[in-house]
C-alpha cells in the first residue's frame, strides 16, 4: 500500500494482554474494559518510547458497546492511560473484525497523509459485558432487513453447523483441529513465542484458556452446544457437531498496534516490524455468515498481486473449527502454515480485541520464523470478513 507522496504504513509496535476466561471466575473479570484497553495503550507507548502527544488518533474496536464498553471506550481508555487531552479516539464495530478494521483505517489514514502516528487497538470483556447485551428488549436493530430473508437468519452456532454439513466435516475432524490448536498454543507458550507480545495484567502472565491436556478423546465427550429442535426441520442436513470444544470460548482481553510511515519511523529511531501491504473487506451470505474469509482471501491476494505460494504464514480466526477447515479447502491454503501458534479455540476470542491480538501474534510469528509475507483474515457476524497482508521488513 503506497499512498500520497509515496507514503506507506508500517507497524512499529504491537502488544496484547494475556487472554482471560470471559466469566466471573476469569482472571481479568475484575478489570473494567476501559482499564483493560488502557493497559495495552500504556504498554505500547512504553515499549516503543513514542511520546503519546505525537499520536494523531486512537482507533479501537469494541463489539458490545454498552455498559462498561459504552461512551466511546477508545477516548476514555486513552485518557485513563495518561495520554494528553490532545489525543482523540474513536470506537469502531465491524463485529469480530473490529480491531482488524481499526488497523485498516489507521493504515489508510497514514497512507493518505491524514495521520503520521496512530494507534489501532481493540478490547472486549465478554465476562463483564455479555455478547448481545447491547440489543435491549423491544428494540429492532434489523428493520427491513428481515423482509429480505423471510425464512429467517440464524445464530452463529447454527451457521457453523451449516458450514460443517455443507463441507462434509465430521465431528472427528473438527475435534482433531481443535485439539491441535491447544497443542500448538501450549507449545508456543512453553517455548516463549508469546513473550514479546504479552503485557501481564492483574497477575495474569499467560493466556488463561489454553488447555495443554486437551485431546480428541476429551473433546469427543462434549455435547453439541447449539442443538435446537426448532431448526431440525428446516436444516435436516445438520449433524449437530459444534461443541464448546471446537468453538472459540468467551474471553477477556485487549491489544494495541502502533502504525506510522517508514520515514517517520526512521526519524524517531523506531524499527518497522512489518509493512501493511494490502487490506480489504468483503460482504458474504449472512445465513452462512462465517464463510467470508474465503472471498476475502481471494480478494486480498488479487489486489496484492500475490499468490498463496507467496504467503509464509496465515492467521485465520478460529471462531469455529469448520470456518478454518472450509477456508483451507476452498482456497487451497496449507494448514501447516496456518495459526502456527494456535488460534482462538485455544487462546480465546475477545471479540473487539481479536483483530489486533491476531495481528500482534502474526507479526511476532513472522519475525520468529524469518518469513516475508503473512495473511490475516477473520469471519464476522452478519456475513463479512476482513483480510490483511503484511510484509516483514
Automatic annotation (TrEMBL):
GO terms for molecular function: acyltransferase activity, transferring groups other than amino-acyl groups. InterPro entries: Thiolase, Thiolase-like, Thiolase_C, Thiolase_CS, Thiolase_N. Pfam families: Thiolase_C, Thiolase_N. Residues 10-262 form the Thiolase N-terminal domain. Keywords: Acyltransferase, Transferase. Residues 271-392 form the Thiolase C-terminal domain. It comes from the Bacteria. PANTHER family: ACETYL-COA C-ACYLTRANSFERASE (PTHR43365:SF1), BLR7806 PROTEIN (PTHR43365). This is Acetyl-CoA C-acyltransferase. It comes from Mycolicibacterium agri (Mycobacterium agri). The lineage of its organism: Bacteria, Bacillati, Actinomycetota, Actinomycetes, Mycobacteriales.
